[in-house]
Amino acid sequence: MDPLDAITRTLAGSGIAARRPLHGGDLSEVTRLTLEDGRDIVAKTGPMVDREARMLGAIRAARAPAPAVIGVSDDVLLMEALDEAGPGDGSWAAVAKALATLHADTGEDYGWDEDYAFGRVEIVNAPRDDWPAFWGENRLRAHLPHLPGALSTRLEALIARLADILPERPRPALLHGDLWTGNLLFGPAPAVHFIDPACYYGDPEVDLAMLHLFGAPGPGFDAAYGPLDQGWEERRAVYTLWPALVHLRLFGAGYRGLVERLLDELGH
Questions:
Q1: Same-domain pairing of 32 and 117
Q2: How many domains does the chain have?
Q3: Rounded to an integer, what distance in angstroms lies between the CA atom of residue 105 and that of residue 61?
Q4: Which of the 8 DSSP states describes residue 168?
Q5: Is 143 found in the same domain as 27?
Q6: At what angle do helices 149-160 and 232-251 cross, to 10 degrees?
Q7: Active site includes 178?
Q8: Which of 67, 85, 107, 219 lies 20 to 30 angstroms, CA to CA, from 181?
């Protein structure tokens, strides 16, 4: 028997009648399945899908929108299928309100109870009670051995002065952790769901920085989310640096210019 069919029979109670590939990330495979009983579900195959399932559950427990998990087996995650559409009237305001709802869920410290990874790039989530230390040690320092010497030296100098840039104890908000537009699933306006999370507790500005990395949210977002604390521009550069380093390691030298520009902005 086909392994995926066997998994759907066990977890969803029905075999597969039809399959359609969906756009997925670079590190996983996503397929929309029509089951023999007529239901549509989504199967995601890849590493750490069990951890992703727990993160989706945490997002839903915070009353923020995310697909419901049907079940997990080995490297397969089954989720509810959601209708997709382009952003329309009110969609970006809905993103802001959903993100504010997510960020209203708070933890005691910064981090998560499990590590995660983007491909070969490990994401260390060991909890800390000092936010600059978390960002420096858990997010930035791990990249030092993988960078050319000049970049490594510049990054190490930045890590040494993070306490002068970042707040010591911002509210530990539940973060999506990888919030670019490709991880927003827009439905008929204004519906939106968070997908492909890399959750942990941290400064809510981290998600906002990621959302602005490859562009800017659409109309209505800023007003619906609300104002940011003074100094957010410099903090945004620090927070954007982490995904830039991840992209440099995963996808190559084409992202070196972005890393260098961010370090320039930060005086390093």
A1: no
A2: 2
A3: 9
A4: S
A5: no
A6: 150
A7: yes
A8: 107
| Residue 170: closest CA among 135, 123, 142 | 135
Q: Which of 2, 113, 130, 178 is catalytic?
A: 178
The answer to whether residues 108 and 72 belong to one domain is no
Q: Cβ atoms within 10 A of the Cβ of 194, count?
A: 25
Give yes or no: residues 25 and 133 share one domain.
no
For every one of its 268 residues, what pLDDT tens digit does the chain have, with 9 covering 90 and above?
699 999 999 999 999 999 999 876 566 799 999 999 999 999 999 999 999 999 999 999 999 999 999 999 989 999 999 999 999 999 999 999 999 999 999 999 999 999 999 999 999 999 999 999 999 999 999 999 999 999 999 999 999 999 999 999 999 999 999 999 999 999 999 999 999 999 999 999 999 999 999 889 999 999 999 999 999 999 999 999 999 999 999 999 999 999 999 999 999 9
Tokens 């990874």 sit on residue: 117
Q: Which domain holds residue 223?
A: 91-265
Residues 96 and 202 grouped into a single domain? yes
Are 24 and 70 members of one domain? yes
Quick check: is 129 in a domain? yes
